[in-house]
Structures are given as structure tokens and as C-alpha cells.
Amino acid sequence: MKKVFLVLILISCTFIDCSYKKKEQKTQQKSLEITIERGAFHYDTFILKDTLLSFNPEKLDNNVLGNESELAKYYQKSEQKISQQQLKQLIQKIEDSNIWRLNNQYGCDRSCTSNLKVTIQLGEKKKIISCDDYKCGCPEILQYLENELIKLQGKDLKRIDLPG
To answer: Domain DUF6438 spans what residues (predicted)?
Structure first.
């Protein structure tokens, strides 16, 4: 009888320990890093590392066309913190999108293009996807991520399309 009782106690302790570890794993948020690299007129980069969002222009120039110019913001490095809730929403959107199944390269047969390269690392998973053009043939989730990081960055650094 003592042996049966001991076995039951051991099984109970094992079950409690395992359920605690599962709860702990669920509450730990996955680390997220997204890099958005834009081409054509911009050649700039947005990098989100968990809750820190950085904008890195190709060239730093605080005096481009004077600081009052609408274009000046495209030449100034900046950082912005996002909330944990915003980060969770991005992670959820990525997980729901099947992004891990997308091709690595998307072409476009237009002559005037503006490339988009997105690198995503979520926990242990990593994916790099390049589009010859950010509109033509580029998956919607990549366009969403670019626009969402621009919105979260807060300086309205939307793409400027060249005429033609």
C-alpha cells in the first residue's frame, strides 16, 4: 500500500511540474526581429528588434534641403519604442499569414521597379524574402509589414514613387 501511495505522489508531482513548465513556455513571448529594406528612391532600412524600431537612411544628412523640407525626415536616423501589445499583434499577424511557406524571391516584368527585401526572425525561425517590386507580385503580408512599420515609426516615411 505504501508503494502505491508513493507512486501516486510521484506521478502527481511530475504532472504538476510539467503543467507549470507548459504555462511558463506559453507566457514567454517569442523574440521578433524584422528588417525592411527599401530600394529605388529610398534605399533605407527599418529594423524592429522586439519593441525598438529603428529607421536607418542610406545617407545621413540633417541639412538636406533644410530641416523644414518634407524630404528632410528621409535622411535622419530615428528610433521609436512600440508597445508590447503592438508587438504581440505583429507576431500574431505573422503567425497567421503562412509567411514561412512563401517563396524566397518574387519577380516582376516591369521596367521601373522598387525592390523590397524583408527578413523576419521569430524565435528560432528565420525567413528572407525579396521582391523585385514592392507592388508588382509582392505578397500582401510583406506590403502590410512595410506599411505597419512605417506607421509604428511615426514619421510618415511612406514610399515616394518616382514619376514615370
So the answer is: 77-152
Q: pTM here?
A: 0.76
Q: Which three cell numbers stand for residue 103?
A: 517563396
| Amino acid at site 126 | K
Residue 27, all three cell numbers: 507566457
Closest among 6, 24, 38 to 143, alpha carbons compared: 38
Separation CA 43–CA 162 (nearest Å)? 13
Edge-to-edge strand ranges of the sheet holding 116-122 = 78-81, 52-56, 45-49, 32-38, 116-122, 125-131, 105-106
CA distance 12 to 14: 5
Please, which residues have CB within 8 angstroms of residue 59's CB and are 6 or more apart in sequence? 75
Residue 105 is classified by DSSP as: E
Encode pLDDT of 146-158 as tens digits.
999 999 998 888 8
145 phi and psi angles, rounded to 5 deg: -60, -40
pLDDT digits (tens, 9 = 90+) for 45-80: 999 999 999 999 887 665 555 555 677 788 889 999
Which three three-digit cell numbers place residue 105?
524571391
Coil, helix or strand at residue 120:
strand
